[in-house]
Amino acid sequence: MKTPLILGGFVIALGAAVVGGLIFAGAGTPDGTAENIFHNIVFLGAAMGAVIGGTLAVTRNNPVYAILSLLGVFVCMSIMFFLLAADLLAVLQLTVYAGAVLMLFLFVIMLFNLGSADPAAEEGGHEKRETATEAERHATGFSLNTPRIRGLIGATLLGVLLIIPILKLEGEQWEQFLPNTGETIQTPEEFRSLVPFATMPAVEIVPEAYRDRLIFVAERNRLMWRGPMDNTIRVTLREAPVGTELAPEWQRAIDRLYATARWAELEHKGLNAQEKREIEASRISALRDMGMNEPQAKQAIGHTGGVRPPGFGSVPRVGQDLFVDYVIAFEFIAVLILVGCVGTIVLAKKRLKELEDTPETMAEEKARGVDLFHRHRLTAQPKSDGSEEPKT
Amino acid sequence: MLTPKTLLILSAILFSIGTYGVLARRNLLIMLLSVELMFNAVNLVAATMARMYAHSGGHVFMLMIIAVSAAEVAVGLSILIALFRQKRTTNPVDLTLLKG
């Protein structure tokens, strides 16, 4: 089948899927859950586009077609990164991969005229040498030893090897796990006693599945989530100055939350599904009394659903990770890129033979009428007869 | 459909396609292209895990992978250029200097 037709159809189909999905998906759900069906449609389109583009990229004989198909793959990956709340990385993917790496490939093809198909197709290899494949073909007219079939077998085995443990993954949800951070409060009395000492107290509720303690953190107005795991929900007691007593409904809610959490922890082994649901319902209502909305409450008690902290994947967040938390890795990568630049230039540089100026050669060239000031003394290949022809 | 399992399986499929490209193609440029495809599959896994655990380290790792792959493509292409200048072929079958 003609490659331009395939590529064109693929681009049109993908564009229709993306545009249709984006039109109907709107700006996404406020809490970040991907339960919207049109998110799924866009993802399906992008996933199929990535697989089709990848297949095209490795099977086209013309390298330019392969690169264009890979560009389609990169765009599909970028769409998927947007769906996965990695906004900055999606844009960087397009900028770096589509804008720099593919350009490098195209320049190499263009400058060295690599645009022709593979010599002797895939089966025989080089014409001068008869490989095992060719011998077998001459003998039997058919060979299973071709690179294509070997590649297919190898890739299929690898794919099976990779997919088997993935299929064993339990749960279809976006599970979130986190360790405990900060000081812990074991009893409601402790909590009540600590609140007056904070200027702007905030309570982080850890999901019940792993820690059943209320974490008291005396921080105010964090712009971003700074902990290693950001699955905790802040419940800020609004404008509570020092010494304020908690309002009765807050107190009731905290007591109820604490009671259900402790009870569940003590008896979780014997709970059946119905009891678990009741406990979860009471905990969710307790958290909603405190001002959380439904998805945040679900996340706080350990339900999955994919709620992510605000600013996840945004530019300030990635910047903070890169320049504050993982700055050593960043520095190493910078050195690596520098070394790559230098290495590329050294490897790809043409070997220039610098010609030396002796008084005799200079007199000879002057006699010939060469402008000694403007000539260039570096040529790529010196002439075999010994007389250097300077480039002007 | 947008579940971790689906995304990881998709990533495995893309990785296998890239492996096929590296194993079955006789053009060094296309082999490099297939390696890029494998890098993207790994990027998808990193993004999925970052979303799964709400941990931004996945994004940082993706950035590292992008940077490393860009540098590797540059150096790989320059090696390809140097080889092409010497041997006028992009077929790795012809690279037999180290053959025992």
- Content of β-strand of chain B: under 5%
Average pLDDT across residues of chain A? Answer: 66
Largest sheet of chain B: none
Number of helices of chain A: 13
Radius of gyration of chain B, taken over Cα atoms and rounded to an integer in Å: 17 Å
SSE string of chain A, helices as H and strands as E: HHHHHHEHEEEHHHHHEHE
> Major sheet of chain A: order of its strands?
1-3-2-4
SSE string of chain B, helix = H, strand = E? HHH
Number of strands of chain B: 0
Low-confidence stretches of chain B: none
* Measured distance between first and last alpha carbons of chain A: 50 Å
Please state the overall shape of chain B, judged from the principal axes of the Cα atoms: elongated
Low-confidence stretches of chain A: 26-34, 119-128, 175-186, 191-244, 264-269, 380-392
Structural class of chain A: mainly alpha
Total strand count of chain A, please?
A: 6
Q: State the secondary-structure class of chain B.
A: mainly alpha
The quaternary state of the protein chains shown equals heterodimer
Percent strand of chain A equals under 5%
Query: Of all protein chain pairs, which has the greatest interface, and how many residues does each chain bring to it?
Result: A-B, 96 and 75 residues
Q: How many H/I helices of chain B?
A: 3
Shape annotation of chain A: extended
